[in-house]
Amino acid sequence: MITLNSVNLQYQTEQGPIDILRNVDLALPAGERVAIAGPSGSGKTSLLLLLAGLEAPTGGWVEFNGERLDALSRDALADMRRDQIGIVFQSFHLIPSLNALDNAALPLEIAGARDARSRVRKLLEKVGLGHRLTHYPRQLSGGEQQRVAIVRALAHRPSVLLADEPTGNLDAQTGAEVASLLLELDAIAGTTLVLVTHDMALANRCDRVLTMSAGKLQEKVSDHV
Ligand SMILES: Nc1ncnc2c1ncn2[C@@H]1O[C@H](COP(=O)(O)OP(=O)(O)OP(=O)(O)O)[C@@H](O)[C@H]1O
User: Fold this and answer.
1) Where is the ABC transporter domain (predicted)?
2) Is residue 90 part of a domain?
């Protein structure tokens, strides 16, 4: 279970402080899939950064399985991120000089897993990239690159997958295929999913849809209202 408790996030700028997140409460039971929609600039990415422990709230606190992140040492927080969290970005963020297999295996290898490459190879085969293992990112389509990125994010079996517009750079059909793979792998692993997306068809495939508006989080009201 992850909780955000009266979380505020404020940035200091030359024009003065700006409030990015305002009094956000959220409880994510293990295995739940939550979509977060909302206009550009409303604070969705900032929310993911807080959940990943990459940003600290300026008010309130984040809890991960009963432990407050602000009570963890820097090393403990880094370990928690490495072991428990996977992230998929809109623009893939693969390393250009590594092939698909090496890209996807990198976090596992850093974590010292002995079976990293065989585990990742199996996952890449599962997402239909068995024939692309030695291809570099520039030789892969956007959809293929995102599939590599999804394998990279899930290979270490994190308890939480954070996805920031994972289909945002893909055409509709490729996006739908990548989304299906992401949801399928997530379901098999039972990973908690927080998915930021503008795509309401994708959002509605999650258990719950929340909307972010000017730094406030709300349960989405029905489309038909
Ligand atoms: N380090 C920072 N310093 C100051 N302002 C920031 C910083 N990071 C983000 N912001 C501002 O915080 C607000 C929320 O940004 P965020 O990226 O969370 O929005 P978003 O909902 O994810 O938007 P999008 O859908 O366009 O990705 C924006 O107005 C952004 O300009």
Assistant:
1) 4-225
2) yes
Strand partners, 164: 196
CATH code of the domain containing 193: 3.40.50.300
Q: What's the total number of domains in the chain?
A: 1
The residue whose CA is least distant from atom 30 of ligand 1 is: 41
73-83 pLDDT, tens digit each: 999 999 999 99
CA–CA dist 203, 208 (Å, integer): 8
**What is the 43 CA–ligand 1 centroid distance (Å)?**
6
| Residues spanned by the domain of 127 | 32-53+83-219
Which amino acid belongs to residue 36?
A: I
Domain membership flag for residue 16: no
Pocket test for ligand 1, best of 13, 45, 211, 218 (most atoms within 8 A of CB): 45
Give nearest CA residue, ligand 1 atom 12: 20
Our CA angle for 160, 164, 168, nearest 5°, is 140
